[in-house]
């Protein structure tokens, strides 16, 4: 049997705290596909590595 990689999943609330945005913003990022997530029952879990990558992306130039 293959070994699973050591992936840490965060709740939407934890992601919101780390990214300093609202939970609704995290849900929008998940639903738009900008932030990958796995659904566990009725809630979402986001891989910690995806949050790290999202924070390292350059901010889009608006205007």
From TrEMBL:
Recorded superkingdom: Bacteria
- Coiled coil, from the record: none
The Helix-turn-helix domain extends over 9-57
Question: What name goes with this protein?
Answer: Helix-turn-helix domain-containing protein
């Amino acid at each position: 049997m293959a070994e699973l990689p050591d992936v840490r999943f965060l709740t939407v609330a934890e992601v919101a705290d780390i990214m300093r945005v609202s939970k609704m913003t995290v849900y929008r990022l998940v639903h738009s596909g900008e932030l990958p997530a796995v659904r566990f029952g009725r809630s979402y879990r986001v891989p910690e590595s995806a949050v790290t990558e999202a924070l390292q992306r350059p901010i889009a130039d608006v205007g």
